[in-house]
C-alpha cells in the first residue's frame, strides 16, 4: 500500500495552479465558441464552468482545491430570425450561443492573476528556503 505524502506549500500551490488552468481553459473554450450558431435550441453551445471543492489533508491540516467536474451553464440561447442562414429552422430562426465575451475575458484575467499569485508564493517560499540553508 502506497502512503500519500502529506501536503506542503508546494503541493497546495501546484493544485491551485492546476485549478486556475482548468478555469482559464474553460473560459478560453467559451470565448472560442462565442458567436457559434446552431439550427436548434438544444444544439447550441452553452458556456462551461469548472466546479471546485475543498480538499483537506488530515496529516498536515492543509486545505487545497480540486476540480470536481465541468458543467454547462443553463443560460438561454439567443433566438434570431435569419431565414437565409443555412442552419435556419422551419420558422427561419437560428440560435446564437449565449457566451458573454466580457465576462469570459474577466474570467481569464482573474484566473491568470490567481495563477501568477501562486507562482510568486512558490518563488518566495523557495527563496526563503535557500536563504535559510545558506545561513546555517
From TrEMBL:
Keyword Acetylation annotated: no
Keyword Hydrolase recorded: no
Cellular component per GO, a single term: bacterial-type flagellum basal body, rod
Domain Flagellar basal-body/hook protein C-terminal: 95-131
Chief place where the protein resides: other
Cellular localisation: Bacterial flagellum basal body
GO term, biological process aspect, one: bacterial-type flagellum-dependent cell motility
Keywords: Bacterial flagellum, Cell projection, Cilium, Flagellum
All copies of domain Flagellar basal body rod protein N-terminal, residue ranges: 12-34
Extent of the signal sequence: none
InterPro entries in UniProt: Flag_bb_rod_N, Flg_bb/hook_C_dom, FlgC
Family: Belongs to the flagella basal body rod proteins family.
Subunit structure and binding partners: The basal body constitutes a major portion of the flagellar organelle and consists of four rings (L,P,S, and M) mounted on a central rod. The rod consists of about 26 subunits of FlgG in the distal portion, and FlgB, FlgC and FlgF are thought to build up the proximal portion of the rod with about 6 subunits each.
The protein, known as: Flagellar basal-body rod protein FlgC
Organism: Allopontixanthobacter sediminis
Gene: flgC
Amino acid at each position: 500500500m502506497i502512503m500519500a505524502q502529506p501536503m506542503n506549500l508546494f503541493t497546495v500551490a501546484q493544485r491551485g495552479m492546476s485549478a486556475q488552468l482548468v478555469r482559464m481553459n474553460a473560459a478560453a473554450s467559451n470565448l472560442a465558441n462565442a458567436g457559434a450558431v446552431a439550427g436548434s435550441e438544444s444544439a447550441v453551445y452553452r458556456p462551461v464552468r469548472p466546479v471546485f471543492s475543498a480538499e483537506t489533508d488530515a496529516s498536515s491540516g492543509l486545505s487545497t482545491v480540486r476540480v470536481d467536474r465541468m458543467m454547462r451553464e443553463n443560460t438561454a440561447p439567443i433566438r434570431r430570425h435569419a431565414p437565409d442562414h443555412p442552419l435556419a429552422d422551419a420558422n427561419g430562426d437560428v440560435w446564437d450561443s449565449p457566451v458573454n465575451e466580457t465576462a469570459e475575458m474577466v474570467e481569464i484575467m482573474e484566473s491568470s492573476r490567481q495563477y501568477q499569485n501562486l507562482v510568486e508564493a512558490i518563488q518566495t517560499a523557495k527563496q526563503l528556503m535557500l536563504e535559510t540553508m545558506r545561513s546555517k
